[in-house]
Amino acid sequence: MRHPSGMKDIMENIQAYMQQVGIAARTASRTLAQADTSAKNRALGEIATTLLEQSALILTANSRDVATARAAGLDEASIDRLTLTEKTIRAMSEGLLQIAQLPDLIGAITDLNFRPSGIQVGKMRVPLGVIGIIYESRPNVTADAAGLCIKSGNAAILRGGSEAIHSNQAIAACVHAGLKAAGLPESAVQVVATTDRAAVGELITMKEYVDVIVPRGGKSLIARISADAKVPVIKHLDGICHVYIDDEADLDKAIRIADNAKTHRYGVCNAMETLLVAEGVAAQVLPPLCKLYLEKGVELRGDAACCALVPHMTLAVEEDWHTEYLAPILSVKIVTGMDEAINHIATYSSQHTDTIVTENYSRAMRFLREVDSSSVMVNASTRFADGFEYGLGAEIGISTDKIHARGPVGLEGLTSQKYIVLGSGQIRV
Amino acid sequence: MRHPSGMKDIMENIQAYMQQVGIAARTASRTLAQADTSAKNRALGEIATTLLEQSALILTANSRDVATARAAGLDEASIDRLTLTEKTIRAMSEGLLQIAQLPDLIGAITDLNFRPSGIQVGKMRVPLGVIGIIYESRPNVTADAAGLCIKSGNAAILRGGSEAIHSNQAIAACVHAGLKAAGLPESAVQVVATTDRAAVGELITMKEYVDVIVPRGGKSLIARISADAKVPVIKHLDGICHVYIDDEADLDKAIRIADNAKTHRYGVCNAMETLLVAEGVAAQVLPPLCKLYLEKGVELRGDAACCALVPHMTLAVEEDWHTEYLAPILSVKIVTGMDEAINHIATYSSQHTDTIVTENYSRAMRFLREVDSSSVMVNASTRFADGFEYGLGAEIGISTDKIHARGPVGLEGLTSQKYIVLGSGQIRV
């Protein structure tokens, strides 16, 4: 129980407050949807400048959050994510200038074709409207998310972690100054002022004011939001990514890719968690590859056939094939070939990113077509599954949902399309 | 209470049955996703032929449903929708052949570009997976929906109205025969065998087996499904469509379009429900236009200014601007111009379809950009908002949601895209 007394009043106040935030966001979203590219870019530039000018104030606010977090006994990893420096503020500022340089997608008309009736039918790209972003400790998300929403013509309601409230408010002040300088409504980006959890419950169910929710954080946060949201959610839960080394793989490429996919970074969603190897090449490829892993301190868990080939490998259990380790641990399985690999992926993959390494054209095409993940790759590291690497510019997240955005979500993922019809007086007969 | 005794057992049985249906659909969806165009088209052709061959059996099953419905006192409009004839069976058969003639979108790769790292990144169009379709009396939906799902590579779970169960089962038998003849799994299209409503509750919450729900029917059915569904829903609730006659309209076009948008068909979602007229042309355009309406028996409800201009018009109340009449009733409002028209539409439109009639280029462009509806038109009747008219071939419905499909939903609306990456051994550095 968070409110031992007067809970009903507080809940009602929070509801009223969030409704107010929602109405202001909806109103601002209509202005922002019509804003021209130069106004949006000017706002981004002004925010970038203001962040640098106000860095002392932001760092002071941040110290306050960090001190409170330390006193409350928050773990070091969380405090590290919470802490801002001159360098991270500079990175936020540069990120906004990069978003300003990306093309403006809003209003673009595509696929305009004449129909037999004489009307022309096409599609116009439009913003989604109001985007609610729910995130944990990192205060830099406040600037990144504001930038992406402004450029894509969306109003944003930002709900950061309670431990970062002063940092987020200080960054929000810079965002508001920039919006104002560019003649755009300040309520286009609102940071929720209360740290009460009930505010999240309101945000994810206010269908009339919020068009989509983007949760950024750990799996439990995202699972909880997805379960309770009435508004659509752009998300992924797990990144159980696979590399399949086919028996017609170029083994040098295979070792390079499988090494990079696991060891380039361990704690990221596009890191490989399970390696599948065709039995025809297992004896050749696994010993040198596993030697690399063991040298880098990666713990190996394999099926019985793998354990027979590689020393220092422990026997994997069913649970391993389901696990996103996000750590220097790898599960390895020898498969009879392509069919077993595809079936294993269909059973255990989280539909995030899966790669085949092969020189066989038909198998490459079959893998691309049959593996039902948001990114499917041939002869490339799973680590490439990323908005920047794909050329989307900035990235607000990666979606494993099939409806709407799928894969890395950049500016385009924050937009929708409507049909437009250009006639010259046509009626239906 | 539908089950006075043994309710718990029945509910558990329905849950187990629906799980079985879900598993079979998921398995079949994997085969159908890989099926080549010729197999899918062959199935459609075989179903079309079988429907004609089995028309006597289908009509017998349908008579049984109609007799039961009459005995139960179902209204005439519903019985009319339920009743099949030789002609409607021929239309179903022809509809399937038309779907066979549409291009196959599945597997198409677009936007393939090299990135600085050397990888190529593109998008591949893929099916959604399993589509649940919930509909009311019309048994022809069984054939139409089966055809659209098969062509788009999706498995379908069809849940028709309980009053049409024998008709739907007879049509489903033809669908299964066609799938079998083409070497495709019969469980690619399943008609739910129970008429218990609990089956719907299962269908719309089985996230692991169902990717999207398409409800087809009245507003109350759709509202109920949207409220309870855990699976994404492709839908629209209301079609409160507007025509705005600008003061720079060509008045001949304006009268032609406003007449057609209201009177071409009354009971359809893309019929105009509210007419907005700029005050500068109201005195010229409203009297002749309203004369047309009154001759066709359309009841007119206007604001005070309209009532002063047109005889036999009653004063509209606030409720009228919110109402989808689906009947020969029209609300009419005189506005000062473009801004008031856009604001009225933003307040009252159901974001389905709205039209401006004007010869002014800048206003036409502004209306297209600023009106946030799934279809926005210039100088054309709202009645064009339709999958066939837009060149989508067949149509499974119209969506007013911004996430994913928006506007008429045809084959493409039943598909998603995944990213594909083509490398030659690249790793991230």
Notes on the structure:
The structure is a homodimer of 429-residue chains. With 429 residues, chain A is an alpha/beta fold. Chain A folds into two domains: 7-228, Aldehyde Dehydrogenase, Chain A, domain 1 (3-Layer(aba) Sandwich); 241-384, Aldehyde Dehydrogenase, Chain A, domain 2, CATH 3.40.309.10. Chain A is 45% helix and 21% strand. Chain A has 15 helices and 16 strands. In chain A, helix 2 runs antiparallel to helix 5, helix 3 packs antiparallel against helix 7 and helix 10 (251-263) packs across helix 11 (279-295). Strand 13 (375-380) of chain A pairs parallel with strand 16 (415-426) of chain B. Chains A, B: Its EC number is 1.2.1.41. Chains A, B: Its main location: cytoplasm.
Brief write-up:
Chain A has about 425 residues and is an alpha/beta fold. Chain A has helices at about 5-35, 35-55, 55-70, 75-80, 85-100, 140-150, 165-180, 200-205, 220-230, 250-265, 280-295, 305-310, 320, 340-350, 360-370, and strands spanning about 110-115, 120-125, 130-135, 155-160, 190, 210-215, 240-245, 270-280, 300, 315, 330-335, 355, 375-380, 395-400, 405-410, 415-425. In chain A, helix 6 (about 140-150) links the parallel strand 3 and strand 4 (about 155-160).
